[in-house]
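Q: Give me the 3D complex with fe (ii) ion.
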Amino acid sequence: MKGLIFVGGLSLNDVVQKVEELPALPHVTYRVLELTSRPDTTLSQLTEVITQDQVLTAKVLRMANSVYYGYARRIYGITEALLILGFSTVRNLVMAASVYNVMDREIQGYFLPRGELWKHSMSTALIARSLAQKTGYELPDQAFVAGLLHDMGKIILNTYMNEKFEDVISKVTTENIPFMAAEQEILGFDHALTGARVAEKWNLPSELVEAIANHHTPSLAKHNPRLTSVVHVADAASMSMGIGLGGDGLLYPFDGFATELLGLTGKIIEETIAEIADSLVDSETMIEN
Ligand SMILES: [Fe+2]
Ligand SMILES: [Fe+2]
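A: Here is the predicted complex, encoded as structure tokens.
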């Protein structure tokens, strides 16, 4: 196992161990996941649970407005959001908002420009949702969350391996090599594996864990290769727009396995990129909040 490799005093297992110090996802998140998976849950039950956490409520409403109905209308309350967006969308927004809440509070290292990663994550999420819809993937909101979280390992590494991770970033920029290769070389493991381990620890659904783990290697996905492929293509598309760290967009090609599985052509991908440009401008307002 790669966790046995020690670099700079910290192994992957040490990093994951450190993650034990990360706060757990809030209890309310698990309650929401539980309630939304039961068919007899009522609107008022769910509203009551979500509104127990004011920060979460605000974030969910902001995401709902910015991402889904940016310029069409405003959503002012959780009950309204549930009515308009439906249980499964709100469930996904709660999950994404919770993870970001915990991570936002924990970021100590600043080698990653925070706005950049957020922009990259958000554009990947939006492209993933749109590609899911276009290719008939039945859970586009799940694809959105997977896109939003795919690089969460970078935040973890940025926080716990400060200097080593700075070396990774400078290697990417100066030697012009892909991010994963630089991580493997310097750390002995990469952000995909790190993110997946943490997602697992937080009991995120196994399909999300897999998509995070294999977003650079979609052909390795066993459980839900379609979801992983959607995230991979969305990630590469976001990179090709120049939205990514270290400017390694050109070094990160689309994996033929993923485009073939989804039946995607370059034209569809280009159209999707053009479509999400507007939503992206809108979502930038969320960075500071
Ligand atoms: Fe990545
Ligand atoms: Fe990425």
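A quick observation: Residues 8-286 form a domain with the Hypothetical protein af1432 fold (CATH 1.10.3210.10).
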